[in-house]
């Protein structure tokens, strides 16, 4: 009896012996490409990689940096919040955005006529901006202006004794991944407000000279556990008492939802510093309305006007 011969192609047995060569399947075709003359040309290599990804259904989306793209499916638009009475963007007196040197990543020191450095527990702030009107793409090229109070609760350019300082204020332009990073110090908790960081998003660096150009104005709500760790350190003594008198759900900015979309992820410790990271969804199809409505005045300590009367809207 004659034994049925197994069909082959270029020395390779058919994967499906009862089917034609053209019907042997993707994996057989890939093997043929790899084995043919023992050489895999660069162009074929790209084709094989693409075929393999499509065949397995496991191709992974990557961002422009070549790493797996972050899942932004649950992203919500960052809430529009007040810029407060100490914005320094020209909407309430002082304007740091007109000054040469404001575009920088390390905002701990003043620039220009002063080099005073703010003290405190080190903090790195990382904001990743997403363009919600463009399928949650990383918002490359937008300019983000960040400002916050110092360890004592004072704001540069406004608080008594700090009128000639501009530290803890700066602008970064988002990279290809929509990321801006600032080196700073952890802010205080001053009387009447939950610990926070202000920021404004502008279409590009050229537009920062006019606060009306901001496409988003919001605040980062700092997590209570991290605040308690920081405020146990020397120099933050007053923040301990102030934190005990406020809550996220009663804060005049975060009370509507407890800062749900404004609470960042935090890593690190008090000795090496903390990294504070927040995704920021910006929808340019909606109207920006948080900034540009700061109360009049703006001198003195946070929560007070020069006359000693509290402002109508603390920032």
Helix content: 10-25%
Low-confidence blocks of residues: 32-71, 292-313
Shape: globular
Structural class: alpha+beta
Region (Disordered): 281-315
Keywords: Dioxygenase, Oxidoreductase
Protein name: Intradiol ring-cleavage dioxygenase
Biased composition (Gly residues): 288-302
What does this structure look like?
13% of the residues lie in helices and 19% in strands. It is an alpha+beta fold and 315 residues long. Strands 3, 4, 7, 10 and 11 form a five-stranded mixed sheet that branches. A four-stranded antiparallel sheet has the order 6-5-8-9, with no helix packed on it.
Could you outline the blueprint of secondary structure elements for this entry?
Layout: E1 8-9, E2 12-13, H1 26-35, H2 42-56, E3 122-131, E4 137-138, E5 143-147, E6 169-173, E7 179-185, E8 196-202, E9 216-221, H3 224-231, H4 237-243, E10 265-269, E11 273-282
Parallel strand pairs: 3-11
Antiparallel strand pairs: 1-2, 3-4, 3-7, 5-6, 5-8, 8-9, 10-11
List keywords for this structure.
alpha+beta, Protocatechuate 3,4-Dioxygenase, subunit A, five-stranded mixed sheet, 4 helices, 13% helix, disordered C terminus, Intradiol ring-cleavage dioxygenase, oxidoreductase, Intradiol_dOase_C, dioxygenase, Intradiol_dOase_core
């Amino acid at each position: 009896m004659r034994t049925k011969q197994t069909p082959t192609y270029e020395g390779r047995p058919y994967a499906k012996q009862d089917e034609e060569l053209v019907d042997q399947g993707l994996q057989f075709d890939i093997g043929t490409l790899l084995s043919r003359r023992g050489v895999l040309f660069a162009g074929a290599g790209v084709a094989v990689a693409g075929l393999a990804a499509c065949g397995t259904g496991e191709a992974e989306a990557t961002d422009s940096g070549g790493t797996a793209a972050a899942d932004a499916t649950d992203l919500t638009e960052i809430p529009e919040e007040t810029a407060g009475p100490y914005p320094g963007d020209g909407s309430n007196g002082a304007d740091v955005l007109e000054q040469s040197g404001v575009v920088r990543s390390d905002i701990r020191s003043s620039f220009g006529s002063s080099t005073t450095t703010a003290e405190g527990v080190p903090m790195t702030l990382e904001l990743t901006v997403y363009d919600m009107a463009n399928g949650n793409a990383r918002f490359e090229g937008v300019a983000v202006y960040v400002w916050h109070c110092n360890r004592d609760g004072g704001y540069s350019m406004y608080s008594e004794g700090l009128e000639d300082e501009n530290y803890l204020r700066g602008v970064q332009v988002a990279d290809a991944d929509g990321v801006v990073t600032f080196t700073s110090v952890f802010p205080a908790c001053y009387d009447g407000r939950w610990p926070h960081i202000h920021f404004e998003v502008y279409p590009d660096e050229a537009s920062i000279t006019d606060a009306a150009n901001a496409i988003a104005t919001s605040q980062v709500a700092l997590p209570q556990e991290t605040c308690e760790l920081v405020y146990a350190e020397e120099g933050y003594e007053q923040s301990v008492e102030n934190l005990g008198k406020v809550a996220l759900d009663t804060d005049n900015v975060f009370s509507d939802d407890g800062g749900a979309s404004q609470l960042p992820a935090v890593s690190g410790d008090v000795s090496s510093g903390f990294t504070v990271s927040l995704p920021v969804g910006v929808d340019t199809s909606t109207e920006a309305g948080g900034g540009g409505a700061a109360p009049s005045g703006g001198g003195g300590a946070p929560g007070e006007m020069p006359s000693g009367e509290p402002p109508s809207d603390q920032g």
